[in-house]
Amino acid sequence: MHLVGSLEGVIFLYSLNNILSPMIFQTYRTSMQNVTTNELELLEKIRNYKIDLLTKPGPHPRGDFVRPEVVESWQRSYNNQLKLFDYNYGPLLTETEFSEVLREKNILLKAADPYIHQMECILTNMESIILLSDENGVMLRVIVGSKEKLAEQNKRFKLEPGSVWTEKTVGTCAHGLSLILGIPM
Q1: Whole-angstrom Cα distance, residue 66 to residue 113?
Q2: How many alpha carbons lie under 13 Å from residue 177 in its C-beta half-sphere?
Q3: Is the CB of residue 154 less than 8 Å from the CB of residue 146?
Q4: Which residues are paired to 62 by β-bridges?
Q5: For the whole model, what pTM was predicted?
Q6: At 162, phi and psi to the nearest 5?
Q7: φ and ψ at 129, to 5 degrees?
Q8: Is the dihedral of CA 126, 132, 136, 139 positive or negative?
Q9: What gap in Å lies between CA 145 and CA 185, rounded to an integer?
Q10: 160 near 142, Cβ under 8 Å?
């Protein structure tokens, strides 16, 4: 086991926070005592690969440590003019717009809500978030498992019903890739 306790570690974590998904970083920060040196090296390798890929011209070797779908998403997000080193918040629909989306998705919500409730009961004490979005990336349901652990983090990232999370609005994210590729991510 390796604990990051040096100034280099703090600088590494700060730069990591600015380049990798802030939600992933938050998970690592809260459980840093469980991160091995190899895992930190892999995170640094991914970070450097992403920076090189997006900021340096020319051909780049394929990184076997990152799925090609993710690399392609990084490139599309960068081409969409999203900020590389800052967090990109998803826009929030107005109350009227969101009410209209909920009305349009009423059948989906009626079908999904019993399953979401069942998952919510199972995940109550776990660090998890249940998301249901429509085909446009609009968050219809956002259920936080362990409210004490994740509620503040979720509030910080403004992941809430009515927010729009797609590759074009927030960048690379699992459900955004699922929408594009039509497969689980």
Answers
A1: 34
A2: 18
A3: no
A4: none
A5: 0.71
A6: 95, -10
A7: -130, 130
A8: negative
A9: 20
A10: yes
SS3 per-residue string spanning 32-83: HHHCCHHHHHHHHHHHHHHHHHHHCCCCCCCCCCCCHHHHHHHHHHHHCCCC
Tell me how far apart the alpha carbons of residues 138 and 165 are, in angstroms, rounded to a whole number: 6
Token pair, residue 167, equals 């590759």
What is the spatial distance between Cα 177 and Cα 183, in angstroms, rounded to a whole number?
Answer: 8
| Helix, strand or coil, per DSSP, at residue 103 | helix
Residue type, 22: P
pLDDT means per 10 residues, the chain with 185 residues, are 36 44 49 71 87 83 86 90 83 97 97 90 78 94 74 76 93 89 87
**Quick check: 156 and 132 in contact, CB under 8 A?**
no
